[in-house]
Amino acid sequence: MLTINSIKNGIVIDHIKPGHGIKIYKYLKLDEADFPTALIMNAVSRKNVEKDIIKIENVMDLNLAVLGFLDPNITINIIKDEKIKEKIQLKLPEEVENVIECKNPRCVTSVEKYVPHKFKLVDAEAGEYKCEYCDEIYKINTL
């Protein structure tokens, strides 16, 4: 069995969908970090379900909206003195900006490159977002 020691002060990103940990790891640019990090893939949880986990031995700013968009089932644990000080349960954000790119060639974002790509959540259960400018619908599992 693989053993990863606990961290003293930092962040644990838990309950990541199996296989998606690497996407979040790269989004956070942890592959370029100069502090200890761990990416654990396909770990078995107490519920006997596989998950990915990221451990970061450092305090850093996280964009919770983007992380919630990437995987709404994530739990963020803030660790201080080897104990969980705060637990944050993520969900799909109501709005995302410059996370999804509108693919509609008639959208203003296709012509005017300075216009930010803004999407609003229209159906949380289906994971559907709508472009604020052209009403194009995107599902998060198809991106």
TrEMBL record:
**Gene3D superfamilies, per this entry?**
Aspartate carbamoyltransferase regulatory subunit, C-terminal domain (2.30.30.20), Aspartate carbamoyltransferase regulatory subunit, N-terminal domain (3.30.70.140)
Boundaries of every Aspartate carbamoyltransferase regulatory subunit C-terminal domain copy: 95-140
Q: Which organism's genome codes for this protein?
A: Clostridium neuense
Query: Taking every annotated instance into account, which residue ranges of this chain make up the domain Aspartate carbamoyltransferase regulatory subunit N-terminal?
Result: 2-91
The record, for InterPro entries, names:
Asp_carbamoyltransf_reg_N (IPR020545), Asp_carbamoylTrfase_reg (IPR002801), Asp_carbamoyltrfase_reg_C (IPR020542), Asp_carbatrfase_reg_C_sf (IPR036792), Asp_carbatrfase_reg_N_sf (IPR036793)
Query: Per the record's keyword annotation, is Zinc included, yes or no?
Result: yes
Keywords assigned by UniProt, alphabetized: Metal-binding, Pyrimidine biosynthesis, Zinc
Coiled coil region boundaries: none
Quote the protein name from its UniProt record.
Answer: Aspartate carbamoyltransferase regulatory subunit
What Pfam families does the record tag this protein with? PyrI, PyrI_C
Q: Report if keyword Zinc is assigned.
A: yes
